[in-house]
């Protein structure tokens, strides 16, 4: 009945999160989405944007994925159901309320192949002793990427935990916000000879993605 009613009267539940302000879970047109005040967090346009990035990666060569920013778990769902990736995913999320939403509303919870860690992403990357074949950076407070994730230190730390032929998908955020800081991330990877970099701007009219593939054959943007 709720599913049928969602096509007529969208149903919204508000959650006061630990770090992301008030989040809204809306049941609309037979599906749930997660939004912050000014942005989609999961199972909406954000999911579509990152799916475009993931489609550029040959997942047959990927054994481990580090997802920085769980949200409602839409990217985990995409990896499993759309791209058929059934190997290990480590998802890092600072906000316990967001983890709870992912589990309760979207049925995304830890399993043998999904480990959800409540941890600050900056410190997780800095202190990690493991390497990953694919790192997806999707870190937002509302519609902005926190400034520490645009820094050279963070980019250096990412580089330290990517495998020899690994890839990074970096959601740089909305195109007109923090343009100089976004460019610093782009320039960091472009100027590293071991990376082949690709930039995709205004995907679905909003966000920009950077894909950095570790390779011995560098090509320009």
Automatic annotation (TrEMBL):
<dbReference type="GO" id="GO:0006596">
    <property type="term" value="P:polyamine biosynthetic process"/>
</dbReference>
<dbReference type="InterPro" id="IPR029063">
    <property type="entry name" value="SAM-dependent_MTases_sf"/>
</dbReference>
<protein>
    <submittedName>
        <fullName>Spermine/spermidine synthase</fullName>
    </submittedName>
</protein>
<dbReference type="Pfam" id="PF01564">
    <property type="entry name" value="Spermine_synth"/>
</dbReference>
<keyword id="KW-0620">Polyamine biosynthesis</keyword>
